[in-house]
Amino acid sequence: MNDRASTVLSGLDSIRSGLEDLYKDLHRHPELGFGEHRTAQKAAEALRACGYDVTEGIGGTGVLGVLANGDGPVVMGRADMDALPVRERTGLPYASTATVTDRDGAEQPVMHACGHDVHVTCLIGCARLMAGSRNAWRGTFVALFQPSEENGDGAEAMIDDGLTSRSPTPAVVLAQHVLPYPAGYVGTRTGSFLAAADSLRITVHGRGAHGSMPQAAVDPVVMAAMIVLRLQTIVSRELAATTPAVLTVGSIHAGSGPNVIPDSAVIQLNVRTYDDSSRTQILNAIERIVRAECEASRAPKDPEIQRTSSFPPTVNDEEPTRRVAGAFAAHFGDDAHTIDLQTASEDMSEIPKAFGVPFTYWGIGGIDPARYAEAARNGTVAQDVPVNHSPAFAPVLQPTLDTGVSALTVAALAWLGV
Q: Residues 82, 117, 149, 150: which is the catalytic one?
């Protein structure tokens, strides 16, 4: 395995500069979910250039590349492509200044604040290395570029558009995510890794009136405030202290002026959980609390509770995760770790689920190691190290890209023997 990995990865020196340029280009030109036309074209062109059979437009903008190289298992590597509606504040010379029109018709700044440009670049790098060293492995390598991960609907869109009939069935699906750990770090974890995520939009109804005559109103602002406070007790008072979960109210909108009591208020919140039991318990508790507070406030109408997005939990299968962890330990040495449970969420697991195959998903670091080490010494990692979705999140080029390319390649070779 080490000899094969060394053979395949020996080509990294010759493509490193091109991959760095590609990353900068992708970072400078981010695109929102299902609008990744330029990114998808870049991926398709790169795959065709090194001999892959390419299918474009799956689920809108998804790209599938297949490289058959004799008898052997099929291994799929997956990368997400979409960016976020965030204004970049990294100060990088290749920072994004892009704006796009979102699904609601609003003009939005756009940034690769989650590192999907890293994921695309690393999968292209891995695909190129595999194509350039076919004498070192046997089987089929599949590179899959998925749209709209941030909205939680890209994997489903590809599946609904016939992904499982367009691609050979893999023996395993592999994926990774750049995270706020030191660059060069790789981390695997068996079982639960990423949280399930459910976003809710709650509309509570009151009765509007003049701000000077609250007795004539049913005030939805007060109602919403009571709900927000009560929701904070679900995790702290209804779950065991050993059960991890997060409930965040991210948005409250009500009214248009200081002297008018409005008719309604809208609360938007997000829940992160790791198992079906706590997920169900929290969602049921939210509905109970909302309805009870509305009744206590004499609301004239029942509240409307809408689930606006839902991500499944990412639970790594044991056998492939242990296999990849062993390969990483052999290749990366002390830089290979067991990673902590993460509260971020993903829809990638829907893809192996559709094929009925196992998967493993791991993390790589993207933060300058010296910066991270200083923050760790000062006990200020949470304050000084930008995290995913921050306007300051900017993975360092190296060794982030080398690590991501190498991790995908080493993992794929754990199945693709000779």
A: 150
Residue/partner pairs of 20-26 with CB below 8 Å, 24 or more apart: 20/397, 20/398, 20/401, 22/46, 22/121, 22/124, 23/117, 23/118, 23/121, 23/397, 23/401, 24/94, 25/94, 26/112, 26/117, 26/120, 26/121
Closest CA to 50 of 143, 117, 115: 143
Active site residue 150: yes
DSSP 238: I
Average pLDDT over residues 84-99: 97
- CA-closest candidate to residue 40, choices 28, 55, 19, 18: 55
Please name the residue that has the structure tokens 């390969």: 327
Mean pLDDT over 55-65 rounds to 98
pTM of the predicted model, to two decimals? 0.93
Residue from 31, 80, 82, 149 carrying the catalytic annotation: 80
Distance CA 362, CA 28 (A): 26
| Alpha carbon distances (Å) from 137 to 1, 34, 72, 130 | 10, 34, 9, 8
- The pLDDT value recorded for residue 1 is 62
Q: Which amino acid is at 76?
A: M
**Cβ atoms within 10 Å, residue 66:** 19
Query: How far is 336 from 100, CA to CA, in rounded Å?
Result: 39
Q: How far apart are CA 288 and CA 184, in angstroms?
A: 46
Span 186-241, pLDDT tens digits? 999 999 999 999 999 999 999 999 999 999 999 999 999 999 999 999 999 999 99
Structure tokens at 412: 């794929």
d(CA 354, CA 245): 27
Q: What are phi and psi of 337, to 5 degrees?
A: -135, 170
Cα–Cα distance, 132 to 194 (Å, whole number): 34
- Say how many C-beta atoms besides its own lie within 10 A of residue 192's C-beta: 17
Residue range 94-120, pLDDT digits in tens: 999 999 886 678 889 999 999 999 999
Q: How far apart are CA 387 and CA 12, in angstroms?
A: 28
100 contacts 109 by C-beta, under 8 angstroms:
no
80 is catalytic: yes
Tell me: pLDDT of 145 over 70. yes
In degrees, rounded to 5, the angle at the alpha carbon of residue 185 between the alpha carbons of residues 182 and 191 is: 120
Give dist(CA 18, CA 405) in Å, integer.
Answer: 13
Kindly report, residue by residue over 288-320, the tens digit of the pLDDT. 999 999 999 999 999 999 999 999 999 999 999
